[in-house]
């Protein structure tokens, strides 16, 4: 089990802003790390640097204490699953899986029968033994994804890198594969770094979450950390579905005013603040309620198990979740209550968190 | 059912009518000359216009002729050697230019220049280059102390000179096609191969070349068809000499038909060449289709995949291993 450390890594491709700026984190041996961020955040660049396909401008990447700077990609013993699977189009599934074991750097380490046994084993784990003699062009997306994962796992790498491996699968298959990934990673105990734009992947899989946006790590921590205690507005915005409400507010010496209501929020410097509250924490009612502000329903989306209701409150849009079937038609009146304990407060100028919601 | 069928038949009749002008053109400019050549090859047609059907007499004559056999052998040697050299050189150049980061567009343009010359100029330039008394190549050989080579008076040097001229002119064509193919290859499988432990030579032979196979086959096919018809460079550089030692089928047909006036025999020679080119093309086309099929999804396979997908999903959902986790 290998520990991955990334220290002060930066990379610029000649654009106005760096692709990766001063990034640092440590991923413990056998842990599942998830790099989450929108497209263009620098996720693929980060993985490519760790794999050795791109060299960082500054900073250091080490695996189990040994620097990787002078090690060429083929000698790093890091496996990578690419976003578009990157299977070898001219080789059958079996030959694709064998390839890493037959590569020159590992020549002579395994006998022919050992290679066959390894391939059979990994095919079994991924439930693809019936596909071994097909060409990649004859596989569906989900099957290609499994083969590409198999090719990464067959040689028991020191580190496994996954670059949006399930982004292009349909929703149902994506869910299955996510569970599978976690199972396989647990079974093999391989240190894994997973890049994804999907926040639910991060919350579901990660021992360690790195929230990446515009090349910067905005927070590094456990899934609970980044979800419950976002260090800044960017992290709060990245995680959670439906997205967190961010409302303009003002802070005075002892409290915060938002949507015309004042909440006690401890001591602090006065000034403009951004108040965040998760849609699940907003209390929504179709009847007037004490301490609630009146608004008008803009839109209601049904997710089956619950509804997401968009309410216009004095020009601001508030997202709230409500039990499915709540009578919230567009145009009808609604009342919204923000429980004081559930508010996040961020400094508007810097986006820095001033106060987190209290966890019940 | 009857009504739509008869309508379709009527529609087809109209379609044929609309297609008739181009079909007439095709008949006039492709089928008629072909049929006429074959007819001429079966007659003793002379340049004065007298002719009589003589069956396969001309074919018997040329097959028994040492000159024709020599020309035929030369044609095959030229075609195989030049196309192979052009492919290897074109591929090497494409790989080198593809990897160079600076001045790529200028290099690309420069490499294409030889292809823009007319073959007459190419033949003349290379004849001058190899000239034993005042050519730069003889001078260069002299300078570095190599013995003089009788470039145009012995068979092997003469053929070498012709091959060099042809390779010089047509390597850019191979380069162009292979370079374009390289540019359109997906980079991800190559990156994956690097991460998987391949490098340098293995990357080239295990991945790059197989992925370039369809483009390679196309380039080789196009060049081979042209190479069998090699004429102008040979005509200008050696005129088929010494004797008929560097003659090709086209050259031999030209001398027999237009210089000696024996159109029937010349037509038989070109018909023989056509048959050989046709067979070579068919074989290469087969290979090309085979190479292409390895990469593209056939309808059959696609259908099978759809069915498998369903099985795959239910398999995953029902599996106890999956539900155990978390």
UniProtKB/TrEMBL annotation, chain A:
<dbReference type="InterPro" id="IPR003439">
    <property type="entry name" value="ABC_transporter-like_ATP-bd"/>
</dbReference>
<keyword id="KW-0813">Transport</keyword>
<dbReference type="InterPro" id="IPR003593">
    <property type="entry name" value="AAA+_ATPase"/>
</dbReference>
<dbReference type="Pfam" id="PF00005">
    <property type="entry name" value="ABC_tran"/>
</dbReference>
<dbReference type="Pfam" id="PF08402">
    <property type="entry name" value="TOBE_2"/>
</dbReference>
<dbReference type="GO" id="GO:0016887">
    <property type="term" value="F:ATP hydrolysis activity"/>
</dbReference>
<dbReference type="InterPro" id="IPR047641">
    <property type="entry name" value="ABC_transpr_MalK/UgpC-like"/>
</dbReference>
<dbReference type="InterPro" id="IPR008995">
    <property type="entry name" value="Mo/tungstate-bd_C_term_dom"/>
</dbReference>
<dbReference type="GO" id="GO:0005524">
    <property type="term" value="F:ATP binding"/>
</dbReference>
<keyword id="KW-0067">ATP-binding</keyword>
<keyword id="KW-1003">Cell membrane</keyword>
<dbReference type="InterPro" id="IPR013611">
    <property type="entry name" value="Transp-assoc_OB_typ2"/>
</dbReference>
<dbReference type="InterPro" id="IPR017871">
    <property type="entry name" value="ABC_transporter-like_CS"/>
</dbReference>
<feature type="domain" description="ABC transporter">
    <location>
        <begin position="4"/>
        <end position="239"/>
    </location>
</feature>
<keyword id="KW-0547">Nucleotide-binding</keyword>
<protein>
    <submittedName>
        <fullName>ABC transporter ATP-binding protein</fullName>
    </submittedName>
</protein>
<keyword id="KW-0472">Membrane</keyword>
<dbReference type="InterPro" id="IPR012340">
    <property type="entry name" value="NA-bd_OB-fold"/>
</dbReference>
<dbReference type="InterPro" id="IPR027417">
    <property type="entry name" value="P-loop_NTPase"/>
</dbReference>
<keyword id="KW-1278">Translocase</keyword>
<dbReference type="GO" id="GO:0055052">
    <property type="term" value="C:ATP-binding cassette (ABC) transporter complex, substrate-binding subunit-containing"/>
</dbReference>
<dbReference type="GO" id="GO:0140359">
    <property type="term" value="F:ABC-type transporter activity"/>
</dbReference>
From TrEMBL, chain B:
<feature type="transmembrane region" description="Helical">
    <location>
        <begin position="203"/>
        <end position="222"/>
    </location>
</feature>
<dbReference type="InterPro" id="IPR000515">
    <property type="entry name" value="MetI-like"/>
</dbReference>
<protein>
    <submittedName>
        <fullName>Sugar ABC transporter permease</fullName>
    </submittedName>
</protein>
<dbReference type="GO" id="GO:0005886">
    <property type="term" value="C:plasma membrane"/>
</dbReference>
<comment type="similarity">
    <text>Belongs to the binding-protein-dependent transport system permease family.</text>
</comment>
<keyword id="KW-1133">Transmembrane helix</keyword>
<feature type="transmembrane region" description="Helical">
    <location>
        <begin position="23"/>
        <end position="42"/>
    </location>
</feature>
<keyword id="KW-1003">Cell membrane</keyword>
<feature type="transmembrane region" description="Helical">
    <location>
        <begin position="158"/>
        <end position="182"/>
    </location>
</feature>
<feature type="transmembrane region" description="Helical">
    <location>
        <begin position="76"/>
        <end position="97"/>
    </location>
</feature>
<feature type="transmembrane region" description="Helical">
    <location>
        <begin position="109"/>
        <end position="126"/>
    </location>
</feature>
<keyword id="KW-0813">Transport</keyword>
<feature type="transmembrane region" description="Helical">
    <location>
        <begin position="266"/>
        <end position="289"/>
    </location>
</feature>
<dbReference type="InterPro" id="IPR035906">
    <property type="entry name" value="MetI-like_sf"/>
</dbReference>
<dbReference type="Pfam" id="PF00528">
    <property type="entry name" value="BPD_transp_1"/>
</dbReference>
<keyword id="KW-0812">Transmembrane</keyword>
<keyword id="KW-0472">Membrane</keyword>
<feature type="domain" description="ABC transmembrane type-1">
    <location>
        <begin position="72"/>
        <end position="284"/>
    </location>
</feature>
<dbReference type="GO" id="GO:0055085">
    <property type="term" value="P:transmembrane transport"/>
</dbReference>
């Amino acid at each position: 089990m290998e520990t991955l450390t990334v220290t002060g890594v930066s990379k610029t491709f000649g654009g106005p802003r760096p692709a990766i700026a001063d990034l640092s984190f440590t991923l413990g041996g056998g842990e599942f790390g998830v790099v989450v961020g929108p497209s263009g955040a620098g996720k693929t660049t980060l993985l490519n640097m760790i794999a050795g396909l791109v060299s960082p401008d500054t900073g250091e990447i080490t695996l189990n204490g040994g620097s990787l700077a002078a090690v060429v990609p083929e000698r790093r013993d890091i496996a990578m699953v690419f976003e578009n699977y990157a299977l070898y189009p001219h080789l059958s599934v079996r030959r694709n899986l064998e390839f890493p074991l037959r590569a020159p750097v590992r020549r002579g380490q395994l006998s022919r029968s050992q290679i066959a046994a390894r391939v059979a084993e990994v095919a079994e784990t991924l439930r693809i033994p019936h596909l071994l003699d097909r060409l990649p062009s004859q596989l569906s997306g989900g099957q290609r994804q499994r083969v590409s994962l198999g090719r990464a796992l067959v040689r028991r790498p020191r580190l496994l890198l996954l670059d949006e491996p399930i982004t292009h699968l349909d929703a149902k298959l994506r869910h299955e594969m996510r569970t599978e990934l976690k199972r396989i990673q647990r079974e093999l105990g391989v240190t894994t770094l997973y890049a994804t734009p999907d926040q639910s992947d991060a919350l579901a899989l990660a021992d360690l979450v790195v929230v990446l946006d515009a090349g910067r790590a905005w927070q590094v921590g456990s899934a609970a950390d980044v979800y419950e205690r976002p260090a800044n507005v960017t992290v709060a915005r990245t995680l959670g579905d439906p997205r967190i409400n961010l409302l303009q507010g003002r802070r005075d010496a002892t409290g915060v005013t938002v949507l015309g209501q004042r909440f006690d929020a401890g001591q602090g410097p006065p000034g403009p603040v951004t108040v965040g509250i998760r849609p699940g924490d907003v209390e929504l009612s179709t009847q007037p309620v004490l301490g609630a502000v009146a608004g008008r329903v803009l839109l209601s989306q049904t997710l089956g198990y619950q509804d997401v209701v968009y309410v216009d409150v004095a020009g601001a849009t508030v997202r709230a979740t409500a039990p499915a079937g709540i009578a919230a038609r567009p145009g009808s009146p609604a009342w919204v209550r923000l429980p004081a304990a559930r508010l996040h407060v961020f400094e508007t100028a810097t986006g820095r968190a001033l106060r987190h919601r209290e966890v019940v | 059912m009857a009504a739509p069928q008869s309508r379709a038949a009527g529609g087809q009749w109209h379609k044929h009518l609309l297609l008739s002008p181009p079909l007439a053109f095709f008949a006039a400019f492709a089928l008629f000359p072909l049929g006429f050549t074959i007819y001429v090859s079966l007659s003793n047609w002379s340049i004065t216009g007298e002719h009589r059907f003589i069956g396969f007499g001309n074919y018997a004559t040329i097959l028994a002729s040492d000159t024709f056999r020599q020309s035929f052998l030369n044609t095959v040697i030229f075609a195989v050697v030049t196309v192979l050299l052009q492919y290897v050189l074109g591929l090497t150049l494409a790989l080198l230019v593809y990897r160079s980061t600076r001045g790529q567009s200028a290099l690309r343009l420069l490499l294409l220049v030889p292809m823009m010359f007319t073959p007459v100029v190419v033949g003349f330039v290379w004849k001058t280059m190899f000239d034993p008394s005042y050519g730069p190549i003889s001078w260069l050989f002299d300078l570095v102390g190599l013995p003089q080579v009788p470039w145009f008076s012995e068979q092997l040097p003469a053929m070498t000179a012709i091959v060099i001229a042809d390779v010089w002119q047509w390597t850019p064509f191979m380069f162009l096609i292979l370079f374009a193919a390289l540019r359109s290859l997906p980079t991800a499988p190559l990156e994956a191969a690097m991460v998987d432990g391949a490098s340098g030579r293995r990357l080239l032979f295990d991945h790059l070349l197989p992925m370039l196979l369809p483009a390679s086959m196309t380039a080789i096919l196009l060049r081979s068809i042209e190479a069998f018809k090699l004429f102008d460079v040979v005509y200008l550089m050696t005129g088929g000499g010494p004797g008929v030692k560097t003659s090709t089928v086209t050259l031999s047909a030209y001398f027999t038909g237009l210089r000696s006036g024996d159109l029937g025999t010349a037509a038989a020679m070109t018909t023989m060449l056509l048959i050989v080119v046709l067979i070579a093309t068919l074989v290469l086309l087969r290979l090309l289709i085979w190479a292409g099929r390895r990469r593209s999804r056939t309808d059959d396979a696609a259908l099978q995949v759809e069915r498998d997908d369903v099985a795959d999903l239910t398999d995953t959902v029902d599996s106890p291993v999956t539900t155990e986790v978390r």
